[in-house]
Write a structure and sequence with these properties.
ABC_transp_permease, transmembrane helix, ABC transporter involved in vitamin B12 uptake, BtuC, single chain, mainly alpha, 14 helices, globular, membrane, 306 residues, ABC transporter permease, transmembrane
Length: 306
């Protein structure tokens, strides 16, 4: 039971990484913008956050630096695809490649650094409950912030006027423009907020999840987050559940290895990515379901006045 409680706790921790990035990408796509540069943004944010945490001694400063780095890269991406009307897919891939190389170059001097591990948050009384306490109430504060963010985002999208405008821009930017809404600025803001959340995800990896810097340490989590937005049909609650699903698959490999299960380590390592492919294949079989839930203008350029 203790081992199972630890597995649940590790699942929540691992899922938080994917949840922040996927929620950010969901905001992007709700506005009609596809950003394939999540992996690159997360890597740049990871080294920016790690460097800031090393020099200040505060992981919270590192998370803030990661959010800023992600927002800045997203702003550049947004200016290119929203104002210059470059291809969203090609620009996103270029951003991902740039982030991978740039983070490796900047991170050379930090490969020997390591942040001190800090004890997780222990919620009084609840954290002392057998099984439930270790599983749910001894997490880092960012785990609970991710849950709160999911609830807040669901309320924003479906209960607030601003959320309605954002969804309208993603469904029909021409109609939103005709009603007087600044479609381009709304999309840029959505892209930057999404980039900041991807940045928080990347910084969380390097400052909390594994408090060190290793080249390429995001290891495909940005692509999993991108796939998760489709898997969750662009709904925040499903994004969070999907993040925990993928986080659980990721941690299951370590749990099985710890239990001495005789399975190839390479096979266990590929489980999260295999699960991503299987889910996407199953979803793609129902094109109508995807089309009904997908923002109508997703990936399509918008030319005001055209």
């Amino acid at each position: 039971m203790d081992a199972f409680a630890l597995l649940i706790a590790a699942t929540l921790n691992a899922g938080t990484v994917i949840a922040f990035a996927a929620l950010g990408l969901l905001i992007n796509e709700r506005s009609g913008i596809v950003n394939l540069g999540a992996e690159g943004m997360m890597l740049v944010a990871a080294i920016a956050g790690f460097a800031a945490a090393v020099h200040t001694g505060s992981p919270w400063v590192g998370l803030g630096a990661g959010a800023l780095a992600g927002a800045l890269l997203a702003a550049v991406f947004g200016l290119l695809v929203i104002w210059l009307n470059t291809n969203q897919y090609a620009t996103g891939l270029a951003l991902s490649l740039f982030g991978t190389g740039f983070s490796a170059f900047i991170g050379i001097r930090y490969t020997q650094e390591r942040l001190p591990e800090r004890p997780p948050l222990h919620i009084p009384v609840l954290g002392d409950i057998p099984f439930i306490g270790p599983a749910l109430f001894r997490q880092h504060a960012m785990v609970y912030i991710a849950i709160a963010l999911t609830i807040a985002l669901a309320w924003f999208l479906y209960r607030s006027r601003a959320g309605l405008v954002l969804r309208a821009v993603g469904e029909s930017p021409e109609s939103a423009h005709a009603l007087g809404y600044p479609v381009r600025r709304i999309r840029l803001l959505a892209v930057m907020v999404g980039g900041a959340l991807c940045g928080i995800s990347g910084a969380y990896i390097s400052t909390v999840y594994t408090p060190l810097w290793v080249e390429g340490m995001v290891a495909g989590k940005g692509w999993i987050a991108l796939a998760l937005t489709t898997f969750a049909t662009w709904r925040p609650a499903r994004v969070l559940l999907g993040a925990y699903l993928f986080g659980g698959v990721t941690m299951l490999q370590f749990h099985l290895q710890g239990e001495g299960v005789q399975i190839s380590s390479q096979l266990l390592t590929m489980l999260p990515y295999l699960a991503t492919i299987v889910v996407l294949v199953l979803i793609s079989r129902n094109a109508t379901w995807i089309r009904v839930n997908m923002p109508a203008s997703l990936g399509k350029p918008f030319f005001p006045g055209s």
